[in-house]
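for the record, two folds in this file. i put them one after another cuz i was lazy. first one right below, seq on top, structure tokens after. the second one comes after a little note so u can tell where it starts
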Amino acid sequence: MSLVLDPAAQDLLFREARTANTFTDEPVTDEQVQAIYDLVKYGPTAFNQSPLRITLVRSAEARERLVQHLSEGNRAKTAAAPLVAILAADNEFHEELPQLFPHAPQVKDAFFTERPARENAAGLNAALQAAYFIIGVRAAGLAAGPMTGMDLEGVRKEFLDDDHTPLMVVNIGRPGPDAWFARSPRLAYDEVVTTV
């Protein structure tokens, strides 16, 4: 059985897409980010909890503050990217559940009264949404450079609060010269999938 999605779209989103390491200086607009979010917000999360929060880093001053918390190998590409997004999990997402899950508002108090339960759920579901966000960036015809090599606690203290856990930084823009490393191998279907 073949996929329904057009082969060109498959290439754009998956086969030809890679983590970008250089970018042109063409700006990424608020309208583009809005269009990305308006697409990826429909990706599923448990109880529709939608815990992902996005902080856009645009100013030179904020960029300098961010770069100091990144691993050495990530600093130059983040400093040069047209737009950087800090993706974080909102550990107080449960406050939105009566609005986001209106047919069962009791879920908020049934499952998420304890902070550790919220942190586990927020981390997993925000990570799902982060993956959707990367695909959305690609769907917009842009390149994404997601990175986790950083001082996460430093990023949290610098840009967030105690209720938010940073997951990754995503550099966003049009790919620049020599943007791609060689494609790394992938596991074969039979190495990953087991039928029981």
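(here's the note) second protein begins now
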Amino acid sequence: MTDEPTRTARLLEARAKAVELFAQVEKHNMIAPGERERAVSNRIRDLANELFGTTRHWHKRIVRSGPNTLMPYEENPPDRVIGTDEIVFVDFGPIFEEYEADFGRTFVLGDDPVKHQLRDALPEIFTMGKHFFESEPELTARQLHAEVGRLTANAGWELGGWHAGHLVGEFPHERIQEALVKSYIAPGNDTPLRRLDRSGRACHWILEIHLIDRAGGFGGFYEDLLDLG
């Protein structure tokens, strides 16, 4: 069994590679008007392979634009052409040397002020949620979900989906079963976030922020490590 300092270091290394992958996506203008979502997803997949030799992803690769950004993870909206005045989010779970990264960011094409406002609110709410986690040693998943919902409502948005994050670790150790609510930051999970997993190791978490502007017909997404980094 891998010792905890090594596990932590490898999860942080996986995150660093995901950060670099997304930086290269932006540098190469892969998210552009006229591109189909699925084609962009495939090009990001190929770039991950080129940069890091990554051939596996621990969950489906997501590139969503326009009204598709309203959809939670579980949905599979039809492939769509990205428009000129658009909000787009990318959610990838690449596996780097058997350790999972889970990373999501939102991009805005065009000058729509509300889309820019929503994009900018995502990391702010994430940071406030992370600070809340850090300030409450006995925090449960349900309590963190409620706080994320409160922060979202106070900022004038709607929270998408039924959870706000999940466990992450070595692949396929944390492959999530939909019915296993204790794997999620969700209303039905009253277990503490700082606990040991089934193998007696520290749980590590991803925090997800999915904001929705229902009237505007779009949303945005941001996810990153909650308890590390």
